[in-house]
What we know:
By secondary structure, this protein is an all-alpha fold. Helices cover 75% and strands 0% of the residues.
Amino acid sequence: xxxxxxxxxxxxxxxxxxxxxxxxxxxxxxxxxxxxxxxxxxxxxxxxxxxxxxxxxxxxxxxxxxxxxxxxxxxxxxxxxxxxxxxxxxxxxxxxxxxxxxxxxxxxxxxxxxxxxxxxxxxxxxxxxxxxxxxxxxxxxxxxxxxxxxxxxxxxxxxxxxxxxxxxxxxxxxxxxxxxxxxxxxxxxxxxxxxxxxxxxxxxxxxxxxxxxxxxxxxxxxxxxxxxxxxxxxxxxxxxxxxxxxxxxxxxxxxxxxxxxxxxxxxxxxxxxxxxxxxxxxxxxxxxxxxxxxxxxxxxxxxxxxxxxxxxxxxxxxxxxxxxxxxxxxxxxxxxxxxxxxxxxxxxxxxxxxxxxxxxxxxxxxxxxxxxxxxxxxxxxxxxxxxxxxxxxxxxxxxxxxxxxxxxxxxxxxxxxxxxxxxxxxxxxxxxxxxx
Length: 436
């Protein structure tokens, strides 16, 4: 039985961490920190619970299942499981998340250096996806390519930014803005939930498990152990970066008093700290962050679909890169408007599948218990997604009766209640069957 060295374990954790941290993760904490003001602590705690806690839990769950999303979805049946997994990979892959990495990088790293009338997005997106594809064509080498080349660049840039955040504080925290006066924890919780890193964990687990196996570790127990260690290391890295970025935003009010997004806060801060070099520094950070995430998602999606339809991995990688390149040219605003409702719709169902994977062995009939709960989560998720798209289905009187409806968490309490009910139904049926 082969073992990973300490160096390989650290490199694996760095790779996992780098896969998670895209531009969205870097942008959310600064604006939350700025707007939360003196209420930054509860906002940060809420964000860390859903922005770090859930993704790590998902990574651990997938490690226990050998990185197999089919096993994760077994309790809802083969057909429903296939549709769920396909929707997940297409959503966090070529339809939304992959092209969004290119557009975010363009908006933050390229556009500030060109005139407003110049549109370099088509040419830039082609170059961007050629580079991403070159790395993605060699999935067995991702631990070496991403881990040894792109991850250090990304992590070094983030560390420089984090150290600077602790050394340079442009201003003191101000009073919390608007909803942050009384709802800082909830807003932090929801924004961490909307980073969608839990879905990303499901996809990235395939990459991590394959990377471990490519180093000669093939037995289930050590693969699971190393995958869990990798997920925990990535979680610690995420938590550290988020805390630093919250501090950065929290003390940057004088630099960006009218900021509406984290990009404006970051841009103002790096310009304050490093001058013109700061803009170049931010560009390198954003491009590296987005590129690593794009590579990881292309690898994960191609690996999954290679096992579904008999088409070679490299063919899928090329197809997904080309499709992503084309969709990226719709622009960031259009992509966000379309992707957010779609992703919000499927997110609750996958959280249910992840969380119940830890307790499914206590059920006599896993499908009887888990399938109805997952279906209920999907129904609530679809409603939230439709509402995020600007359409209201439920009357206000019904919304008022649902706990945490305004936070896109209205599914949580009903799903917990239904899970408890179905557990006792399962027990009663099994007892009756044994008595017969």
